[in-house]
Amino acid sequence: MFRLTTSRLLTFWVVKYIAFYVLLMVKNKNYFFLRVDQIRSIGDAFYYFFMLLFLPFLCFFLLSAPLYYLLKSNSRPLKVLILFLILAEYVLYTWLDSQLNYWNGTYNAMVSMLFIVLFFYKYIFPRSAT
User: Fold this and answer.
1) How many of the other CB atoms lie within 10 Å of CB of 23?
2) Is 100 domain-assigned?
3) CA 54/CA 20 separation, integer angstroms
4) Which terminus of the chain has fewer CB atoms gathered within 10 Å of its CB, N or C?
5) pLDDT single digits (tens) 72-130
6) Euclidean distance between CA atoms 93 and 109, whole angstroms
7) Burial group, residue 130, by CB count within 10 angstroms (0-12, 13-18, 19+)
8) How far apart are CA 54 and CA 14, in angstroms?
């Protein structure tokens, strides 16, 4: 079984948010962040990276420790608390980034559920040692 490491958690947050941003780009038909020809200076590049990576790193720092310990626990009722962690991410996202459109937070929560299962299915659904 693969090991649960901080690099895997960081990869989870970054990949999940990239998929979420792509979903929002397609949904809104707004491809502003794909226009790399508009980058004219280091300040522009920093702005792009800040806008794209701020939330993944914030979620990594605030929510990775609870996610790590919930995934490491052997108690199935504690695994249900992962849903509350997704709810915390929904509140964090809508409060920081999408106060006018709560549907974006709902899409974010759905993408979170999908990627948590994809990245950590062996911890959520462990095989019995029989």
Assistant:
1) 15
2) yes
3) 14
4) C
5) 888 888 888 888 988 998 888 888 877 788 898 899 999 999 999 999 988 888 776 55
6) 9
7) exposed
8) 10
Q: From the centroid of its chain, how far is CA 94?
A: 13
**pLDDT over threshold 90, residue 46:** no
CB atoms within 10 A of CB 107: 18
Confirm whether 130 is domain-assigned: no
Task: Indicate the pTM of the whole model.
Answer: 0.81
Structural domain that includes position 16? 6-124
H helical segments located in the chain: 6-28, 42-72, 76-79, 81-96, 102-124
Question: pLDDT, tens digit, for every residue of 62-85?
Answer: 989 999 998 888 888 888 888 898
Measured in whole angstroms, the distance separating CA 47 from the mean position of its chain's CA atoms is: 20
Q: Give the number of domains in the chain.
A: 1
78 domain residue, yes or no: yes
